[in-house]
Design a protein that fits this description.
Helix content is about 35%, strand content about 20%. The protein contains 22 helices and 24 strands. It starts with a helix and ends with a strand. It comes from Spizaetus tyrannus. Its main location: cytoplasm. GO terms for molecular function: [methionine synthase] reductase (NADPH) activity; flavin adenine dinucleotide binding; FMN binding.
């Protein structure tokens, strides 16, 4: 018992979309293969663990959501540890290692993990292993894989420290012997680059599946023409390398077909985030001209018969299905076209080696096969390396098998990034590229993530348009590329565009007797309130809004709301309002030309626009981008932010706009205050903390 206790560590995860949980499960699987027990729990399950009394090492995997918030599952935990009455030695007994997940496209990179890490340190907890921060922008695996590799040595040292404290030498001997092979040549995050042979790490297959491929199979020798790598073809050194590939994940799902038809569960049962509402789409308008580079649509929803409530600046989520043609194509490749409407039962496989195996929460126990592929699984998801590893076992062609091994190996990491991750390759693309790969249905359920609802900013005011909710979006387009020869539309935006086509083009569709469109399409939505991206509580405070393209969406709601308040409260004092808007062409994608109406009735004080692709004959070329326009009004920006304690809002593309805007504001603060750039950056950081510089951005 004593020995077992010291081979245990507590493993906590906090996830928003399943990434952190999947990584925690990988850690648990590897721990089991090394003779260790990972006691794994969601961080929200505070009744199943107690950090106040925890004596063993703790490993935490935590993601970040929104604009830098901890995931929803960590909110109670974070609130608990942020209790200001806790003494500074509250967690002095705690030894932990933390892996944070984030996206450097966003300002507060890995802030969920950083928040927990900093607070644990403030309460006296000690690192037994350095914090890892993984970046989804370049590939989580670039940090996650070496971090997990280094974890085992760090755990060994943590157990040794316990031995020194408690004199339990027998424990350490047991742990040391079980880890010694795995730890050879690994220290921290410095990994040995010398690979002697291809290692399949899973315990059950070590002896039988170790492949020694120091020489390339004669059938795989590249022709002189194939000098460039591709999704299906590799070149030296990868093609001639021995490979380190992940452990084969144990299968844990069993699918039973029933020769009966039945009803599927309601969509609301798939959502745990809040109450869902099925609402009709009452209006659809194309805001861009046909020759615009992007197509932007405005949709109006009727929420009058619901209790759905929102404020301007809030977001909400749309529950969307996978593309019907892609679902049919997938069924055909799987050889299940005739069984799409069959009911299936999804259960945990008896005798599975996966610890803590459970049916995924997003998969109904009983529904039709087509329902699961349409509403439950993200079939467009970029396959993770563990999925590729599982697909290897379903592939009969030797060359295809080897290439899939390369793509999930350490040696093939750059190929994985280039041909799968960066190319937005999905399962269907892989099955076309590797036709001898015939995965089972249970494998898809085990490895494809939950089909996530898509989030959109509200573009209306309930005060201005009672019972209505509007939102604006571009129809996302994925052009073909060498690794993915077909073009696709976004899962949700493509579906919405098809859904509202009768409203957009009534003459091309079925008309009712009065000549109007008879479409009464409905969509399911649920609220995702924004806690900060709202109008100032005091209407006399000035505000500046920056929203090029569809980034203008929430500001239409702001202006509608402000206009209604001005009409209802003539005695109130209202601060000045600035709006900076930009698009490519004034005559093609100027989304809301009625902004002039807000300007004319005094709701909007200043409207500044720019058009990046329009040709100008002016002697001095006008500014192309909103960040350039902002610089022209440096004194006004500084006055609003510094003297009048105003608010500054930015909405839209993160990489190509929001960063440029924040750089412009830093330069303005530096110039107007006659301070160096570092000091100006600190002031901007203070404005962010005070919730007076607010962003709603996407990558």
């Amino acid at each position: 018992m004593c020995c077992d206790l010291k081979r245990r560590f507590l493993l906590l995860y906090a996830t928003q979309k399943g990434q952190a949980k999947a990584i925690a499960e990988e850690i648990r699987e590897q721990a089991g293969a090394r003779g260790l027990e990972a006691d794994m729990h969601c961080i929200s399950e505070m009744d199943k663990y107690n950090l106040e009394t925890e004596k063993d090492p703790v490993v935490i995997v935590i993601s970040t959501t929104g604009t830098g918030d901890p995931p929803d599952t960590a909110r109670k935990f974070v609130k608990k540890i942020q209790d200001t009455t806790l003494p500074p030695d509250h967690f002095a007994h705690l030894q932990y290692g933390l892996l944070g997940l984030g996206d450097s496209e966003y300002t507060f990179f890995c802030n969920g993990g950083k928040t927990v890490d900093q607070r644990l340190q403030e309460l006296g907890a000690q690192h037994f292993y350095d914090t890892g921060l993984a970046d989804d922008c370049v590939g989580l695996e670039l940090v996650v894989d070496p971090w997990i590799d280094g974890l085992w040595l760090a755990l060994k040292e943590a157990f040794l420290l316990q031995k020194e404290k408690e004199g339990m030498s027998s424990v350490v001997d047991a742990v040391s012997s079980s880890l010694s092979a795995a730890l050879h040549g690994v220290h921290g995050l410095n990994l040995s680059s010398e690979v002697q042979n291809l290692k399949l790490e899973d315990e059950g297959a070590r002896s039988s599946d170790v492949l020694s491929q120091k020489l390339v199979d004669i059938n795989l020798v590249a022709s002189t023409r194939d000098t460039e790598p591709s999704l299906v073809h590799s070149v030296p050194p990868v093609s001639q390398s021995a490979l380190n590939i992940p452990a084969l994940p144990p299968e844990y799902i069993e699918v039973q077909f029933q020769d009966t038809h039945g009803e599927n569960p309601h969509l609301s049962s798939l959502i745990s985030e809040g109450t869902t509402f099925e609402v009709p789409v009452t209006k659809a308008v194309q805001l861009t001209r046909e020759d615009a580079i992007k197509t932007a649509l405005l949709l109006e929803l009727d929420i009058a018969d619901t209790v759905f409530d929102y404020q301007p600046g809030d977001a909400f989520c749309v529950i969307c299905p996978n593309n019907v043609n892609e679902v049919e194509e997938l069924l055909q490749i799987l050889g299940l076209s005739e069984k799409g409407e069959y009911l299936i039962c999804v259960k945990v496989k008896q005798g599975t080696k996966k610890k803590g195996a459970a049916r995924p929460q997003h998969i109904p126990e009983r529904s039709t096969l087509k329902f699961i592929l349409t509403w439950c699984l993200e079939i467009r998801a970029i396959p993770k390396k563990a999925f590729l590893r599982a697909l290897v076992e379903c592939t009969s062609d030797t060359g295809e098998k080897r290439r899939l091994q390369e793509l999930c190996s350490r040696q093939g990491a750059s190929d994985y990034t280039r041909f799968i991750r960066d190319s937005n390759v999905c399962l269907l693309d892989l099955l076309h590229a590797f036709p001898s790969c015939k995965p089972s249905l249970n494998l898809l359920i085990e490895h494809l993530p939950k089909l996530q609802a898509r989030s959109y900013s509200v573009s209306s005011s309930n005060l201005y348009q009672p019972g209505k909710l509007c939102f604006v979006f571009n129809i996302v387009e994925f052009p073909p590329c060498p690794a993915r020869p077909v073009s696709r539309k976004g899962v949700c935006t493509g579906w919405l565009a098809e859904l509202v086509a009768p409203l957009l083009h009534p003459n091309k569709n079925t008309l009712n007797t009065k000549g109007g469109s008879s479409s009464t399409e409905k969509i399911s939505i649920f609220a995702r309130p924004n806690n900060t991206f709202h109008l100032p509580a005091d209407p006399s405070v000035p505000l500046m809004m920056v929203g090029p393209g569809t980034g203008i969406s929430p500001f239409i709601g702001f202006l509608q709301h402000r206009q209604k308040l001005r009409e209802e409260h003539a005695d109130w004092e209202f601060g000045e309002t600035w709006l900076f808007f930009g698009c490519r062409h004034q005559d093609r994608d100027y989304l809301f030309k009625q902004l002039r109406c807000f300007l004319e009735n005094g709701t909007l004080t200043h409207l500044k626009v720019c058009f990046s692709r329009d040709f100008s004959t002016a002697e001095v070329a006008p500014p192309k981008y909103v960040q350039d326009v902002i610089r022209l009004y440096a004194k006004e920006v500084a006055r609003v932010l510094l003297k009048e304690r105003g608010y500054f809002y930015v909405c839209g593309d993160k990489k190509h706009m929001a960063d440029g805007v924040s750089d412009a504001v830093v330069d303005i603060l530096s110039m107007e205050m006659e301070a160096d750039k570092l000091e100006a950056m600190k002031i901007l950081a203070t404005l962010r903390e005070a919730k007076r510089y607010l962003q709603d951005v996407w990558s």
